[in-house]
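Re-run with default settings, no changes from the original entry. Doing this only to confirm the output is reproducible before filing.
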Amino acid sequence: MQAGSVVREVINAQPDAWTRVLASSQVQWDLPGRVLCVGSGTSYYLALVVAALGQRLGLDITAIPAQNIILDAEEAVTGFDSVIVISRSGETSEAIWSARIAKKQGKVVLGVTCNDAAPLLQTVDRAWILDYAHDHTVVMVRSFTSMLMAFEQALARHGQNAAGLAALEGLVGHAQEFVAQAGEIVRAMMERTPRRVYILGAGVRHGIALEGALKCLEMSNENAAAYGPLEFRHGPWGSVTDDDVVVLLGQTRYASHEREVLRDLSERTQRLLTVASPEWFRGNDDPGIHLLLPDLDDLWLGPLAVVPLQWLGYDWAIKTGRDPDAPKNLTQVVDLSYGIH
């Protein structure tokens, strides 16, 4: 089998899973009070996106890594009424332990997983099970975007946000074309192997930037990092050379600030990719390559925004002779069972 063939297939197949999410009646936001959202690795980055989105919509929601509950349970969960535990497999030790601790503390626990046989389901009060979105790969790809789509769907329904629901429908309508276009653009960018990749994103894109950097690290074992666009000027900026690729996940509400960072970066490297909606670019001659998201509200476009970052990790791995289907030193499930009681 050709290296990376499974991951490539899963990246391309994501729109089918998103369509199924939108047709699902399972995903409902019915959590009481203050909400704590937790996960590990990619699932934690998803929690960050969910928290940023929820805060923008007026909810009282916070994201922390699951390890915080394990290391200091009382401090981590005090003051919260509900806990969301995200785990693709539902088998990860930190996820199971976090759910148990939250239940002991009297919290309402929602488990979000892609495994209908997950041990996590034995502990939670409520569950969203997206078994059709499981990647069956080491790296999380379709599972991340599909679970994000589920959260977006639930939050839009909860707020009776007609514009948000329409944006999600529009996202799915543009998805297949965008996935293909993103693959072509990234492939061309990666013709010359980069020294490093930097991914910049703020607000609802910060967790996505972190996830993109992780995908590069997992699949290629090369050097990638994520920062907020303005934070990038405080230190990391100094190391950029023309051998580096910088990806900016732009949002129209931040465009004036992000554009200045991009223009400054163009003095260091021409290998710039901006992923943003048409409004971000309107009336400006910005440097680098432009990958246009659909002309919809930025807030809901996260599942698409991560796709070029998935291709980035995939192509970097292939370019350097590695196999994205079998990343070095990684497994599908992290088992720290010595800590589970």
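The chain is about 45% helix and 15% strand. The longest strand covers residues 108-113.
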